[in-house]
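Researcher: Sequence recovery benchmark, item below. Answer with residues only.
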């Protein structure tokens, strides 16, 4: 599954699931642009891991919720690399809280980054992909977007919105040989899950048929399938990678 000669942009690519995706795409031969909005040291570490493994990577800081910053950053990538072939909309934030007490600012922040950000990035790369008559867009959703999650009405709504965005874009861009798909992770071992108390982790695992958390490589593998030639005839679909937590 070679991506030699392809240019990939991974939003929120500095750590966690995003880092795993960056490493996988680079290992397949793509030039990977690692987007981040904070923690530049993490982005640098991801780039170093790729370079040390013989891959190609660059770093670009911009906020996906800032449409003008997204547009100028994508133009910069095209100017530097010649094109953009793959976009992974992975950037996301949480501002958890019960709906009755949720602040409007917390609702807006999550929707702006997790949903509007994906829209902004996809729109910004669509023109060059249509010109190429080839493109791969993968949106990283969540089990919460399907099953819902108490205390995460903003996050669940944004991730559910990604599912509809994926299907609509898939229909719009299919005639230009651009596929748009979605990966919906369940609980994956990252810095976020490591912060959970041991008893909380155990309670969650009891709700998962496979009884373990997933690995970032599981999500990276799903993304790799969608962007490779193996997934060329698949569009508008969601691949649930959650150990059976949602079926």
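Model:
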């Amino acid at each position: 599954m070679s991506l030699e000669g392809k240019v990939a942009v991974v939003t929120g690519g500095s750590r966690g699931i995003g880092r795993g995706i960056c490493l996988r795409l680079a290992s397949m031969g793509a030039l990977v642009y690692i987007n981040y909005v904070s923690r530049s040291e993490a982005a640098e570490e991801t780039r170093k891991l790729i370079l040390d493994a013989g891959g190609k990577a660059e770093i670009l800081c911009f906020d996906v919720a800032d449409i003008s910053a997204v547009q100028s950053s994508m133009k910069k990538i095209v100017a530097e690399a010649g094109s953009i072939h793959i976009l992974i909309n992975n950037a996301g934030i949480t501002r958890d809280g019960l709906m009755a007490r949720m602040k409007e600012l917390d609702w807006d922040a999550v929707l702006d980054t997790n949903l509007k950000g994906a829209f902004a990035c996809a729109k910004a790369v669509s023109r060059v992909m249509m010109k190429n008559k080839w493109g791969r867009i993968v949106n990283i959703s969540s089990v919460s977007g399907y099953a819902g999650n108490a205390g995460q009405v903003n996050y669940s709504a944004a991730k559910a919105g990604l599912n509809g965005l994926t299907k609509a874009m898939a229909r719009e861009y299919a005639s230009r040989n651009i596929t748009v798909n979605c990966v919906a992770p369940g609980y994956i071992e990252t810095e976020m899950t490591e912060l959970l108390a041991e008893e909380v982790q155990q309670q969650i695992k009891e709700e998962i048929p496979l009884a373990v958390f997933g690995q970032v490589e599981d999500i990276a593998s799903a993304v790799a399938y969608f962007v490779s030639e193996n997934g060329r005839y698949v569009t508008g679909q969601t691949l649930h990678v959650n150990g059976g937590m949602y079926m």
